[in-house]
Amino acid sequence: MKRIRHIVRSHGPRFMKFGLSGGLGAIVDFSGLFVLTAILHVDDRYAVILSSVPALIVVFLMNKHVTFRASGKAGSQVVKFGLVYAAAFLWNGMLSLLFLAAGLPAFPAKFLAIGCVAMWNYCLLHSFVFRGHGKM
Predict the structure, then answer these.
(1) What are the residues whose beta carbons fall under 8 Å from the beta carbon of 92, sequence distance 6 or more?
(2) Are 69 and 134 in contact (CB under 8 A)?
(3) What is the pLDDT of residues 70-113, one digit of tens each?
(4) How many CB atoms are closer than 10 A to CB 69?
(5) Rounded to whole angstroms, how far apart are CA atoms 125 and 119?
(6) Could you tell me how far CA 47 lies from the centroid of its own chain?
(7) Torsion of CA 28, 29, 34, 35, to 10 degrees
(8) CB half-sphere exposure, 83, CA atoms < 13 A
């Protein structure tokens, strides 16, 4: 129990900022999904993937400057972020497609996929991408 309290105290504020960054990314993602499906009539299978691209840009910038307050070379951070999010992007896409195949509409499928990938992303952003940067 003591260990859990320590983890919550040391990561809680940063995790909340991570959640806000992810929430903004999700708004961008869902807005893109809406434009792609409702306005441009892109097939759901492509739209759930394409809508993630601008969201990734927003999430990187928010996590670098707000969540982790990371200084240092943005180039190496972008490369590391790219590696983490390439895996997360594939996982998100596969889960979205799996949920679509299970009969869920595009928006709930995408929402569930984003939720499944969130913990993976925080852990790797904290320990790999922005390691040793910023203040808690």
Answers:
(1) 52, 113, 114, 116, 117
(2) yes
(3) 988 889 999 999 999 899 989 999 999 999 999 999 999 998 99
(4) 15
(5) 10
(6) 17
(7) 70
(8) 10
